[in-house]
Design brief:
By secondary structure, this protein is an all-alpha fold. The chain has one domain. 71% of the residues lie in helices and 0% in strands. It comes from Georgenia daeguensis. It is a multi-pass membrane protein. Its main location: membrane.
Length: 160
């Protein structure tokens, strides 16, 4: 067995498939939590819960959290504007970690921080790695590249 292959990061199609799986899994979790805030608890209930947890500006924070998690989760699933939404989701999770969960310790059953830490880490990884080839980001980048190449092929002095 060649152990060096165990320590070599995935590349090519394997990397893109792994990014797709990670993006979709994170996106589903974020989307579910955002929809829970909006549809299950409702925004007044979410704001009240945030107030009880000591979250600053609970009404505004509730809306920020619900929208970022819902729209950001859907964007991750689609691979649309991935670095931007991953950054917003990271900010959201770091806020939840510091403001609410950190004092309770690690375990989620005790309102701990393991879930928000894992979600923040996953979002940070997507900021670094991008969405991969199987994403709307890749489709938009390819279209942009084609259009830029077409503009460069217009002869000098020709009407644009």
């Amino acid at each position: 067995m060649n152990f060096s292959t165990l320590f070599t990061p995935a590349s090519g199609t394997a990397k893109d498939v792994l990014l797709l799986v990670a993006r979709v899994a994170l996106g589903i979790v974020f989307l579910a939590h955002g929809l829970q805030k909006m549809l299950t608890w409702g925004m007044p209930g979410t704001a009240a819960a945030f107030e009880g947890m000591g979250v600053p500006a609970p009404g505004l924070s509730a809306w920020f959290s619900a929208i970022v998690e819902t729209v950001g989760g859907a964007a991750l699933i689609l691979g649309l504007l991935t670095p931007l939404f991953a950054a917003l989701l990271t900010v959201n999770m770091v806020g939840a970690l510091v403001i609410v969960h950190l004092p309770f310790g690690m375990w989620v059953m005790d309102n701990g921080y393991e879930l928000v830490l894992a979600l923040a880490a996953g979002a940070v990884a997507l900021i670094a790695a991008g969405a991969g080839r199987f994403s709307l980001d890749a489709v938009l980048a390819a279209r942009s590249t084609v259009k830029a190449a077409e503009r460069e092929q217009v002869p000098a002095g020709a009407a644009r």
